[in-house]
Specification:
alpha/beta; globular; Rossmann fold; 9 strands; five-stranded parallel β-sheet; two-stranded antiparallel sheet
Length: about 400
């Protein structure tokens, strides 16, 4: 006891001003927090403001956290289901507007291109300089143009999310070209939920504000502190404490009846909406089909990813492949009908592990390969001239 008192006295004697300042701040925070809770206790109506309370709904903008930097390494479980993914930490830096960096290379670019899509556009497990949205911009500079290319891909995003991003984040950039690649995420959400408008907490368009409690405040303060002092350790701690998140847990086990015409109709409407919005805002829309390793006879890696669908939902591999191919065919049809450039990656990218490390995600080699295709198609179709080709 005397030892602790001596330590306290020594700290106070050596740093009296700093010690008093820290104590004053702590006391001030406690007093403010106490008064806040007292006021809420005296007037329960204040606990849930009509505009900003727990019942408030809002439209979700599915983007990566702005101004964040993460070093992401595939888990052992993920690595077991791949055959050409390098086991290392991949740097994922996000700029102030939620785009995967590097993005704004030039202060005054001649051409601005934005890429919309899910994880296959985001290219999380690809080195920064090899992610195709960035690399396309660098390749196009061989045409003597200053090009900024923006990667707006986010894992799990479908055309519905991309349209939301287009309206609320992309149009203010005044881009010349917007390229969208979506397929499997649309297919999955329509199969599992039946519609883009759904109440899935991970994929639905509407979010709900959670009521702020004392424990949630404490968790927030603790989380912020750990993220600040140990940014690399924080993801490991949260992963260890959190149970595995299953985005479709509440529908898993439900046998799905496939209505192909309905699914393709919903998807087609979103593709058309994307084109219409771009053209109404003077933007050249570009569609891309999605490459994959969905062959007639799947290999072990593909089976590892798709077998759960048959077990949990009764969807066979052949049915899944057929739908995936039909979605790509819809992209081609909509592009042709609207005289929009379709970059057919599904036909141009070999269905091999040298390019795709699981069933649809590019490795570094695949991303570089795709970047050359995209850049070549944009040049070939004269889309580098500002606001032409729409």
């Amino acid at each position: 006891m005397r030892k602790n008192q001596n330590m306290t006295n020594n700290v106070f004697m050596k740093h009296p001003k700093k010690t008093l300042f820290v104590l004053a701040v702590i006391i001030f925070v406690i007093i403010v927090f106490g008064f806040e809770k007292y006021i809420a206790w005296k007037d329960p109506a204040l606990k849930r403001d009509e505009r900003y309370g727990a019942n408030t709904r809002h439209i979700l903008l599915r983007e990566n956290p702005p101004l964040s930097i993460r070093y992401i390494r595939a888990t052992d479980k993920e690595l077991k289901r791949t055959d050409s993914l390098t086991d290392k930490a991949y740097r994922l830096e996000i700029d102030e507007d939620g785009f995967v960096s590097p993005s704004r290379i030039h202060e005054k670019p001649d051409v601005k291109i934005v890429f919309l899509g899910g994880s296959t556009t985001e290219c999380m497990y690809v080195d920064e300089q090899n992610r195709f949205p960035y690399l396309v911009g660098r390749l196009l500079e061989n045409e003597h143009r200053k090009v900024n290319s923006y990667n707006s891909g986010v894992g799990g995003n479908n055309t519905f999310h991309s349209i939301n991003i287009l309206i609320n984040k992309i149009i203010p950039l005044n881009p010349d070209i917007v390229v969208m690649m979506e397929n499997v995420n649309d297919l999955i959400i329509l199969l599992y939920e039946g519609d883009y408008w759904n109440k899935n907490p991970y994929k639905g368009p509407i979010g709900y504000c959670a009521e702020q409690t004392f424990s949630s405040h404490i968790r927030g303060i603790f989380g912020t502190a750990v993220r600040s002092f140990a940014p690399n350790l924080y993801p490991k701690i949260t992963a260890a404490l959190r149970k595995s998140e299953d985005e479709f847990a509440y529908v898993r086990g439900k046998k799905i009846v496939i209505t192909q015409e309905y699914l393709l109709g919903k998807y087609k409407t979103n593709l058309q909406t994307f084109i219409n919005i771009c053209r109404a805002n003077g933007i050249a829309p570009v569609l891309m089909t999605q490459a994959s390793r969905f062959k007639e006879k799947p290999d072990k890696v593909v089976t590892a990813h798709t077998s759960a669908m048959e077990r949990d939902f009764g969807i066979t591999y052949s049915e899944l492949k057929n739908l995936f191919d039909k979605f790509n065919e819809t992209v081609r049809d909509v592009g042709e009908a609207n005289k929009v450039l379709v970059i057919d990656l599904a036909k141009k990218v070999p269905q091999e592990k040298n390019y795709i490390y699981d069933f649809d995600h590019y490795n570094d080699n695949g991303s570089r390969f795709v970047a050359k295709i995209i850049a070549g198609e944009l040049v070939k179709n004269n889309l580098l001239k500002s606001n032409e080709g729409i």
